[in-house]
Automatic annotation (TrEMBL):
Keywords: Decarboxylase, Lyase, Magnesium, Metal-binding, Thiamine pyrophosphate
One of the GO biological process terms: aromatic amino acid family catabolic process to alcohol via Ehrlich pathway
Pfam families referenced in this protein's UniProt entry, alphabetically: TPP_enzyme_C, TPP_enzyme_M
GO molecular function, one term: pyruvate decarboxylase activity
Subunit structure: Homotetramer.
Organism this protein belongs to: Oryza brachyantha (malo sina)
Cofactors (names): Mg(2+); a metal cation; thiamine diphosphate
CDD domains: TPP_PDC_IPDC (cd02005)
Higher taxonomy: Eukaryota, Viridiplantae, Streptophyta, Embryophyta, Tracheophyta
Family membership noted in the UniProt record: Belongs to the TPP enzyme family.
Catalytic activity: a 2-oxocarboxylate + H(+) = an aldehyde + CO2
Name of this chain's protein: pyruvate decarboxylase
């Protein structure tokens, strides 16, 4: 939680001290509490013009901005109902697992009030439970649907996280014997070391042999999916609604038939695991057609570094004490191909698709998961958006490893719609980070142009500089992209450029 504009954060400190357990690594549905310092309570209702406004005596501008991106907003202008408003905001964020906005007049923090006289007590939110009749009906319809299928499969989606249903999903895999895949933004939510894991389902850019098994199945259960133009590769999925069971956090839809509300995903998957028949046909089919992927071509001495060689080395760095953050761009596709060891964390953001998000995400993840060393793969264009967060990483003494892939522009945009606006001003990235470091804290930078230099830099980062923030700038050719980005970019470009429907 970040505070802005408040002079004395006494009340805000009480909020932050509330002992709430928030699940780690939340992705698309985040219980974020945005705390803003608001105008002096005496200024409301006057005709005064204040700073941080557009010059009108209207103090609701910021509130209106946040209304579209938060599920609850509260403006605290007096102490009488401050406690109630704050409690309601926190409870709503946790219950809905969505952001809330809380504005507190800047003259209120630090003032005593009886409602804040006791230390905060832990929140208790009643768990959400399924409607028992609805749960039974949903399980019965799903069992009938799946048990009639010849080669059913399972696909995990990103809302497994908010539903806290990852373990229940794996239990269903064990009970059913089905092959299972994950959608790209669900990578890391379920183990990839399970013998029935077949990779990432991402339409035309799926892991090798994964899409063929999923799309040829006669029944597929998607647990917590988000289907958008990016995850569907420009709406080019070869899926059929009548073959699909869609399980959302509180709802189940079976093919073209019935829908069941008030059914919690975790309970549903657990009950389904008790009754579904075992069927490993899809997995057996996968094993028949699977061919292990090859290795990148060996580099010539001092050959310019290729991105596929970089990720070959990143793969070797991963263990249960690692976590990976994949920036929007070609790192989406290269990081998807990494095989995560048991316990290795992974963060990936696709719904909004904003570039630069990973720098702030790295800062927050590393601060909250201090038992892991985080490896971030970030493009040069993305880094330029939020580079200043490196300063806070250093102040917080973080020891993450940043691979800055410098290929001279917005490569993902080039593959969707090219133009001169995708070329950026090149920075001296290592020099910038050294300047931010300014001799204070632990920081080490390196610029690499070939595999020999990369190997040496990784050895240093994992060895003598293991307690430092390590920033490794990788010089790559502007056209060095994954084959998946080329395919994905072409399909998304085609979807974006569809002509208007005739009137």
């Amino acid at each position: 939680m970040r505070t802005t504009g408040a002079r004395d954060p006494a009340i805000l400190v009480k909020i932050i001290r509330v002992p709430i357990k928030i699940p780690k690594n939340l992705r698309e549905n985040l219980p974020v509490i945005c705390i803003a310092g608001g105008p002096n309570s005496n200024d409301y209702g006057t005709n005064r013009i204040l700073h941080h406004t557009i010059g009108l005596p209207d103090f609701s501008q910021e509130l209106r901005c946040f209304q579209t991106v938060t599920c609850h907003q509260a403006v605290v202008t007096n102490l009488e109902d401050a406690h109630e408003q704050i409690d309601t905001a926190i409870a709503t964020a946790l219950r809905e697992s969505k952001p809330v906005y809380l504005s507190i007049s800047c003259n209120l923090p630090g003032l005593p009030h009886p409602t804040f006289s006791r230390d905060p007590v832990p929140f208790f939110l009643a768990p959400r439970l399924s409607n028992k009749m609805g749960l039974e009906a949903a399980v019965e319809a799903t069992v009938e649907f799946l048990n009639k299928a010849v080669k059913p499969v399972l696909v995990g989606g990103p809302k497994l996280r908010v539903a806290k249903a990852g373990k229940a999903f794996v239990d269903l895999v064990d009970a059913s014997g089905y092959a299972y895949a994950v959608m790209p933004s669900a990578k890391g939510l379920v183990p990839e070391t399970h013998p029935h894991f077949i990779g990432t389902y991402w339409g035309a850019v799926s892991t090798a042999f994964c899409a063929e098994i999923v799309e040829s199945a006669d029944a597929y259960l998607f647990a917590g999916p988000i289907f958008n133009d990016y995850s569907s590769v420009g709406y080019s999925f070869l899926l059929k609604k009548d073959k699909a069971i869609i399980v959302q956090p509180e709802r189940v839809i079976v093919g073209n038939g019935p829908a069941f509300g008030c059914v919690m995903m975790k309970e549903f998957l657990s009950e389904l695991a008790k009754r579904v028949s075992k069927n490993s046909t899809a997995f057996e089919n996968y094993k028949r057609i699977f061919v292990p992927e090859g290795q990148p071509l060996e580099s010539e001495p001092n050959e310019p570094l290729r991105v596929n060689v970089l990720f070959k080395h990143i793969q070797k760095m991963l263990n249960s004490d690692s976590a990976v953050i994949a920036e929007t761009g070609d790192s989406w596709f290269n990081c998807q191909k990494l095989k995560l060891p048991e316990g290795c964390g992974y963060e990936f953001q696709m719904q909004y698709g904003s570039i630069g998000w990973s720098v702030g995400a790295l800062l927050g993840y590393a601060q909250g998961a201090q038992d892991k060393r985080v490896i971030a793969c970030i493009g040069d264009g993305s880094f330029q958006v939020t580079a200043q967060d490196v300063s806070t990483m250093l102040r917080c003494e973080q020891n993450s490893i940043i691979f800055l892939i410098n290929n001279g522009g917005y490569t993902i945009e080039v593959e969707i719609h090219d133009g001169p606006y995708n070329v950026i001003k090149n920075w001296n990235y290592t020099g910038l980070v050294d300047a931010i470091h300014n001799g204070e804290g632990k920081c080490w930078t390196s610029k690499v142009k070939c595999e020999e230099e990369l190997t040496e830099a990784i050895g240093t980062a994992l060895g003598e500089k293991k307690d430092c923030l390590c920033f490794i700038e990788v010089i790559a050719h502007k056209d060095d992209t994954s084959k998946e980005l080329l395919e994905w970019g072409s399909r998304v470009s085609a979807a974006n450029s569809r002509p208007p429907n005739p009137q």
